[in-house]
TrEMBL record:
EC code: 3.2.1.8
Source organism of the structure: Streptomyces shaanxiensis
Record's signal peptide: 1-46
Keywords assigned: Carbohydrate metabolism, Glycosidase, Hydrolase, Polysaccharide degradation, Secreted, Signal, Xylan degradation
Catalysed reaction, written as an equation: Endohydrolysis of (1->4)-beta-D-xylosidic linkages in xylans
Chain positions covered by the region annotation Disordered: 1-20
Protein name per the record: Beta-xylanase
UniProt cross-references to SMART domains, sorted A to Z: Glyco_10
The keyword Thylakoid is assigned to this record: no
Broad class of where this protein is predominantly found: secreted
GH10 domain segment(s): 67-362
Length: 364
């Protein structure tokens, strides 16, 4: 299994705040009130369960989801919150190629199925992640040379077998993940090098044949703001639409980092994809920081979570938000970025952080 290349949340956007001081003050007041209510408990609502993030998002016609991963599902308190607070889940690893086709032509959907079954029990919808990606590929695929004809057949079979298996069980697929470099050129993956850029249109068409109803997405990081990489997606999406290639949405992963600044053009960016007739989603949100997490950093993080929630709510075709797991206990960040972490709305003890209350406020 290979690690993801690139630098998630790299400093492509200067930290220019777009919010007015007034709005920030109001928001801070709201968050403080929410924290107070959470700590003291409002007498009047003592017996009412407070609405979950999913409940609040639903009022806007959006979902609020979390990624999860199979090994975590033995953690009962974790699982309880996962099942109650969210109305959408994404398997962090279980549907990737290494897991689903460990040997050529031998498919194993055990991990993905476990998550789909859990979601079903909790009335949650599932985003399928991911069919075509340069990372976490099985050794049989990366360990040899392929002719274009061979690789096309392998790719088609993988996509169609997996999409067929999950037909009616996932509402969206990240069909191709992380296809572009930071400068907007195509990433030189095994698929690009062997098949050329047309592999993306082919992958979308094959997925559509296998499930006529599922929403088909391209998904990437560092495309939250307007810049060369999101421009590449905008251009590609326009071309694909013109060629009637089935593409329904763009997933903006949103692995942000406090030290690199907030992508202030997020809302404009979501809007320009909507204008192409596409859905968008924030698919893998986390906001990491250089440790230790101070009160100031956690407050800034909370504001960013609120800001990105506002941005999604402001654009009708932004269909939902997914955090890349919900608790710092299971975040991928510390293992990938030394000295960084505290990226999620719940801490390692599953206690809600200021970010959680800020999301609630934004969703109200
Ligand atoms: O959350 C996933 C983590 O458990 C894996 O070790 C990692 C390997 O690259 O992939 C993580 O998820 C990635 C996602 O599939 C695609 N976007 C970036 C995510 C974080 O690396």
């Amino acid at each position: 299994m290979t690690r993801a290349g690139g630098s998630y949340g790299s400093p492509t956007h200067p930290h220019v705040r777009s919010r007015t001081m007034r709005k920030n003050r109001l928001r801070l007041a709201g968050v403080l009130a929410a924290v107070l209510v959470a700590v003291t408990g409002p007498a009047a609502q003592a017996h009412d369960k407070p609405p979950t993030l999913a409940d609040l998002a639903e009022r806007h016609g959006r979902y609020f989801g979390s990624a999860t991963d199979n090994p975590e599902l033995v953690d009962e308190p974790y699982k309880a919150l996962l099942g109650s607070e969210f109305d959408q889940i994404t398997p962090g690893n279980g549907m990737k190629w290494y897991a689903t086709e460990p040997q050529q032509g031998v498919f194993d959907f055990t991990e993905g199925d476990e998550i789909v079954n859990l979601a079903r029990a909790n009335h949650q919808k599932v985003r399928g992640h991911t069919l075509v990606w340069h990372s976490q590929l099985p050794g049989w695929l990366t360990g040899r040379e392929w002719t274009a004809t061979e690789l096309r057949a392998v790719l088609k079979k993988h996509i169609q077998t997996e999409v067929r298996h999950y037909r009616g069980k996932v509402f969206a697929w990240d069909v191709v993940n992380e296809a572009f470099n930071e400068d907007g050129t195509y990433r030189e993956t095994i698929f690009y090098k062997t098949l050329g850029p047309g592999y993306i249109a082919d992958a979308l068409r094959w997925a559509r044949q296998a499930d006529p109803k599922v929403k088909l997405y391209l998904n990437d990081y560092n495309i939250e703001g307007i810049g060369p990489k999101s421009d590449a997606y905008h251009n590609l999406a326009k071309e694909l639409k013109a060629q009637r290639v089935p593409l329904d949405g763009i997933g903006l992963q949103a692995h942000l980092a406090l030290q690199y600044g907030y992508p202030t053009t997020l809302e404009d960016n979501l809007r320009r994809f909507a204008e192409l007739g596409l859905d968008t989603a924030l698919t893998e949100v986390d906001i990491r920081m250089i440790l230790p997490a101070t009160e100031e950093k956690l407050a800034q993080q909370a504001e960013w979570y609120a800001d990105l929630t506002d941005a999604c709510l402001a654009v009708r075709r932004c269909v939902g938000i997914t955090v890349w797991d919900y608790t710092d206990k299971y975040s991928w960040i510390p293992a990938f970025f030394e000295g960084q972490g505290a990226a999620l709305p719940w801490d390692e003890q599953l206690r809600p952080k200021p970010a959680y209350y800020a999301i609630r406020e934004a969703l109200r």
